[in-house]
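Notebook entry, structure prediction.
Reason for the run: the old model in the group folder had no record of what sequence produced it. Starting over properly, with the input documented here first.
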Amino acid sequence: MTPAPRDPAHPPTERITGTMQPMPYPLRLISARDRGTLERCFGEAGVDPHGIGVIAGKAEIIVVRVDGVSAPAANIIKQQLLSLGADAAVHRAVITGAPDRSTVYVVADRNRLERLPAKLARQPFGLPELGAAIERLVGAALRPPRPVRLPAGELDLSRGPVVVGILNVTPDSFSDGGAHRDPDRAAERALAMAAEGAGVIDVGGESTRPGAVPVTVEEEIARVRPVLERLAGRLAVPLSIDTRRSEVARVALDLGASIVNDVTGLAGDPAMADLASKRGAAVVVMHMQGTPETMQIDPRYEDVTSEVLAWLGSRAAELAAAGIAPESIIVDPGIGFGKRLEHNLSLLAEIGDLRGLGFPVMVGFSRKAFIGAVTGRGVPERLAGALAALGRCCAGGVALVRVHDVRETADYIKVWRAIERTETDR
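New structure, fully documented this time:
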């Protein structure tokens, strides 16, 4: 039913104790609380420019989880936050000195959280270090994504998720097995994906679907080399090589690839990290429990997001120590790689948490089995489900999305950016 037009001569009313009273101040709940939207609203209301930043910071509620906190430390954290007008969710028994260790959730607006490190600076129990770590974590999570350093130039991530187009040149890919085995056809598909909006083309010559059997290095090279040769000098966007073998990566880098996307997190081949370091290649560090042959047999986690975060953070630090520039590292939680349905859904629900690692996040969800498990759809019919996952990734600040359906994904991101009123779209 179309609502009746508002009559300026008759202001809105509100019901008070059973009677209708004039309501002189029209009300509206503001549900969009991202900083950009709030700053725009405050500016339109004529708020002082300095006050805009201060008040917008008060509307940004940030929650930080801290594990393994002793009861005395938890009490101090809570009291210091209360003194700032913020709070902490702590175990109900910490007031009595128990348990020995528990999880604390810090809950504060951005302005108050920025003052917490100073409050903890003179406290015992390692709290000064905790305050500094919280400051680093929040800074990493909230700052705009930085460009990814490539051997020549960089990959801009400032306009929302970059679409990474999947080009499988294998006979047994789960989604499009054999469709692009012909090198000419594969090269044309790469060019088409770039025209449709892909910002990276990811070429893979070995299937890593659950239960996949490895192929020889020679066979993998024979699959990818002709495609890369045909794309030399024709592709305006960076090329990525999807491989876990340094020999394949070396051939691809020689032929113009600038990103190594390794499902083992560069842990499966001892020579991979050294190769990437020496060639200045960007790397995608993916989490996988097990191997493609075994990963879906019986994957188990106590807390999947925390465990994936810990592994990715540790592995990225190892690679940086091995000589790979931190600016060249991308992390990927590995949706579908050693994860059950509930693990995949939890990771997507909490995908924004990965930004705290300080590295751009890439997510691959396209056509995967978890979408089929939820919708009952076969592989060719999973686009709508994938777009739902894409929406969550956009909201969570994911920097790159690896997909088969490039045109539809790029269109979704364009509309999302327009709705979000990002600086580039204003």
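Summary: Residues 56-133 form a domain with the Ribosomal Protein S8; Chain: A, domain 1 fold (CATH 3.30.1370).
The old model has been moved to the deprecated folder.
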